[in-house]
Specification:
The complex is a heterodimer of chains A (441) and B (329). Chain A is mainly alpha-helical. Chain A is built from 14 helices and eight strands. With 329 residues, chain B is mostly helical. In chain B, helix 5 packs antiparallel against helix 6, helix 7 packs antiparallel against helix 12 and helix 11 runs antiparallel to helix 12. Classes of the chains: A mainly alpha (441), B mainly alpha (329).
Amino acid sequence: MDPLILARIQFATNISFHILFPTITIAMGWLLLFFKLRFRATGDDKWMQAYGFWVKVFALSFALGVVSGITMSFQFGTNWPGYMQKVGNIAGPLLAYEVLSAFFLEATFLGVMLFGRSRVSENVHTAATLLVAGGTTLSAFWILALNSWMQTPAGFEMINGQAHVTSWLAVVFNPSFTYRLPHMLLASGLTASFLMAGVSAYQWLRGDRAPAVLAALRTGVFVAATLIPVQIFIGDAHGLNTLEHQPAKVAAMEGIWQTERGAPALAFALPNEKEHRNDYAVGIPKLAALILTHTPDGEIKGLDEFPDRHPPVAPVFWGFRVMVGTGMAMLAISWLSAWRLRRRGEPGVWLARALVAMTFSGWLATLAGWYVTEIGRQPWLVTGVLLARDAAAATPVPLLGISLGIYLSLYALLILSYVSVVFHMARKHVGTRTIYGELPA
Amino acid sequence: MNELYPLIFVFLMALSMLIYVVLDGYDLGVGILLRRASDAHKDEMIASIGPFWDANETWLVLGVGILLVAFPVAHGVILGGLYLPVAFMLAGLILRGVAFDFRVKAHDDHRVWWNRAFYFGSLLAAFSQGFMLGIYLLGFHYTFASISFAAFIGLCLIAGYSLLGATWLILKSENGLLDRAVLWARGSLWLTGIGIVAVSIATPLVSARIFDKWFALPNFFLLAPIPLLTAALFFICERTLKKMLTGQPHRAWLPFACAVGMFLLAFIGLAYSLFPYLVVDQLTYRDAATAPETLQVMLIGVAITLPAILGYTAYSYRVFWGKSRALSY
């Protein structure tokens, strides 16, 4: 097998596994701070019970994020040595700032947040929660700056084949950063709020109608319902930004092979890489042109304009549809639930089941979205600067294979354990639980 | 000034690695000792490292991070040469890190498996790190002799981390567990000592340059305090543990301090042997360093954040000072 493909699969496996957990913790930190502040303001103990349960989910997610993050720090160099050689002057400081400013902050104050409530004052405990939430967000800031720079590099010059910074401000606030950072933070908000709503709905369905469960359910549903329209708006703006800077990625997302005016938005198609066309395409005429150029007859560049420099089409095309489809489902379920909660105060059996089904929808949408943006950057590692194949290490295939096998089996075990333990905790959590009856039929 | 940047960063990297080895050393050690403890003691042991382990492992990210961003060429050579042991170490660290959380949250029937995962992950991480050190010292050759040597160092590091873990437990625990910890500490002390001696003998033998650095005069006499102090700490540790066993008056912090001191001295000796090389006798830190402008930008970050990191780390240890209480949150 091609070592480049193996190295990419290995890196993708690790980074996909890793991103699942920061996606939860970045926003969950702020939700915990919200619980803590509500408790301080109202004195109502249900907020502290909700905090007590969700801080456990937070700690578990955080631990998984930490350990998979350690793997990343090793693989940058072992899998992509050409990356640091060529753009290390940019990637190095951004990564260093992430570790120095964020990692220690979150890890240290997490200890105080989890175990310190009996040892420090309430104010210090609240401050620790704030610092952990701030730390996770700060870490997202740095890593998104680097990722966006790889997509739309700016603020540098090439001297002897190495990138040298001319303006750090331009490096950090590169053209796609101001879209990608909010897009990711909102994705985190949605992932955490659907997780909260889904697990609470599961508890509710099992007869756990404690005030703390309802408080978490309401928080999850209302946060999700508020964030999802904003996310759709930001996502659209991000798409327009991508069209401007990475037209080949957009062409792959829309499955447009030849430059055309009034391109349709395809609901289904099988991109055919060999013959440069789509099989079995079903779509709405002119909609893609309308969304992307805001005129029904606008022109969108096709993939054929970028010979050998466009991404593989099928994964980008389908990743985009999975992301958008999940987003639409999020919109429908969260608004219906919010409406129902406002009117009746309780979700009802069918909506609760729908929320349970959507518990990990944030993961699905986030991963699909990242696949669109990362695979969509191929064959470049840094757009226009460095090709992925030029950065790869000459690691022997057996070594890549063995280590990939270790990681894959470990990650499969851990995801399975994570999901089952979260639901196990939800079942076990009997705070001041009021049972109105057995499982509703 | 431009020549100074790489030196500053090689110092910072060494410092991060030293802090990592000592801090994660004690919590890996507690994990390794877990298998020998009763169920009640297991909870007490894990409570003693609960608030710290996340931050402890972050020092590894910082150390490897500095290697990656400040000495990218060396990062490729070293971690490429240690590819599989690194993968095993990471698997171990992942397993124990998550087992820590899973074991208290999972189904009661699964708890025993997460305890085993915690123990096995700690053991695997510690062994791999020692193995990596051995292979690294011998220049990334995988022959029968070098693998045997590296595996031996792996075993010694397991003992070393157990010593740190056991002496940490002496500080943090009471009654029944305290007595067990004293016994564990005594057992691991001897193997730790043997390991230090083995590395000290092996390093001068693999490199004539290192041999001269230690044994040429007057270096030999100037450096003599390192092995002598190590030996002194060893015997103080041994004597204090014996006092603890027989119930004589003693200082509870002394064994941990001695263990840390031994690691510190061994680390200084190793750093002295290797300097200025990052890859033994092949690649110096100067040749591996990235552009001075980049180091400068990072140094600003270090100057701002490192004092803060040290400050709040100290704060966290103060908050959780004294005997650990039951783990609850």
